[in-house]
Amino acid sequence: MKTSSGKKLWIGSSWKMNKTSSEVERFCEQILPVLNDLPDQIQSFLIPPFPYAQKVAQELESVTTRIGVQNICWAESGPFTGEVSCAMAKDIGASIVEIGHSERRYWFGETDDTVNKKVRATLDSGLSPLVCVGDTADEKQWGVSVESIVRQVKIALYGIEKVELGRVLVAYEPVWAIGENGIPATPHEAEEGLKAIYDALVSVYGELDANKVTLLYGGSVHQDNAEELIQQPTIDGLFIGRAAWQPEGYAEILSIASRYTS
Prior knowledge:
The protein is of the alpha/beta class. It has eleven helices and eight strands. The chain has helices at residues 21-36, 50-59, 86-91, 102-108, 112-124, 137-142, 145-156, 187-205, 207-210, 226-230, 247-258, and strands at residues 9-14, 42-47, 66-69, 96-99, 128-133, 169-172, 214-218, 237-240.
């Protein structure tokens, strides 16, 4: 039984820079009855573009789906044109903040240091950070994938106390597996990456507290590989891209996940 450890099985999606208001409304209308019938052991979550986060939170307020934003600034307020604070995210109904996605790192200069600052700000605000880490195709070829993702995790959580770990999610998203042309990781590769992250958490916090962190896999997750990924021992859930951008696709993966709960 996947949830025998007491953890919920997290199944969610980030929409990146996609959807209009009408598309968001259609998605919510169609997915609401599915979310309403989910087993208690599944924690669904959605991370829309910021302009629609409040709309999604309001449309789905009758279910336990958690809503996130795709980025925040580490500062509480100030001269940071174009940025969004944790207080703003919280004010519109978000409870999760996606931090450090490889696209943020590549296109917008996100660094391990700024990831750590954002994790700290998120936790201080009472929100849950969803920290994305991953290895590049070059790092995989060079045989340094483990070193790369462990470095990212340790810096992201630097200074984070044990008592806060229950609100932390870490998603292993191999950069080579992300996007339309991504090459899906095998379940074994996904498990290897998350096991390395788990072992690093144990080395810092000890086994008891390391187990409080929710470990997700993301990177070309789809209906055909979701079942085998969920069965991996270290994977606590799936962080899905385009395969869950339509309500039918998300519903199908939620149905697959439901088989592994009591």
